[in-house]
Amino acid sequence: MGRLSEKTAIITGAGSGFGAGIAKRFAEEGANVVVADINLKRAEDVAAAIGEAAIPVHADVSRKDDIDSLVASAMQRFGRIDIMVNNAGFTHRNMPLTEVSEDNFDLIFAVNMKALYFSTLAVVPIMEGQGGGSIINTASTTALRPREGLTWYNASKGWVLSATKSMALELAPKNIRANCLCPVEGDTEMLKLLLDEDTPQHRAAVKESIPLGQFSTPRDIANAALWLASDGSSFVTGTALEVDGGYSV
Questions:
Q1: Catalytic hit among 26, 78, 90, 153
Q2: Of 102, 103, 122, 142, which has the highest C-beta tally within 10 A?
Q3: Residue 2 located in a structural domain
Q4: No. of H helices and E strands in the chain?
């Protein structure tokens, strides 16, 4: 029996990077997985790699109707939602805070923050009716230790951390746990935006700032998410789990 046997998980931003890693890891542990991404082709590729236990769904998490449709698709196919992983994220390119455009700021707010509000409205009543559930939000080590040139992104991830703790407090009587992951930078597409310049030298500098001397991998983040989603963490809620190779120490 896998640790997530007979459970259903929705993972947003699951077409690549950390989200794809989480989707595949959850499926390995017996979960039915809803692979949600704004890029349907990527979601389809990840779902195909997983097999019959996964369905791909196009979802722009900044739109309430897309989130509602995503949740409806999960219920129609699998009949329940036990785990909600709010992983989709957006960042502005590393630059001075006064140079970030209003459009980029609004996207950060919509994808990194408001999407959690939409998904909470949609899944909490379902989880409460089932007797409980687990909500996992992807924050960042920048919520704890900001990186220069990413002010508005850092702030959005700090909001995720604070919102998660507040959610945990309010949802505890419903037996719904809420936790967040704080990953350090991984060698993913987003890394190109987080760096001032995407050069071997800048990558090396970031890597050197991590005590274990390496970037995080999708498997690292997926294993942490698996623990938070499983019954092994049944007494854990309101936690910001640092998956960062010691960066936040």
A1: 153
A2: 142
A3: no
A4: 9, 7
Q: With respect to residue 245, please indicate whether it lies within any of the assigned structural domains.
A: no
Is the Cα dihedral 181, 184, 186, 190 positive or negative? positive
Q: CATH number of the domain that 80 lies in?
A: 3.40.50.720
| Residue 247: active-site member | no
What tokens were used for 99? 């140079």
Question: What is the Cα–Cα distance from 141 to 215, expressed in whole angstroms?
Answer: 13
The number of distinct structural domains making up the chain is: 1
CA dist., res. 104 & res. 82, Å (int) = 32
What is the reported pTM?
0.94
Looking at the domain assignment, is residue 205 inside a domain?
A: no
Three-state DSSP class for 165?
helix
Residue among 183, 160, 176 at smallest CA distance from 237: 176
**How much is the CA Rg of the chain, to the nearest whole Å?**
17
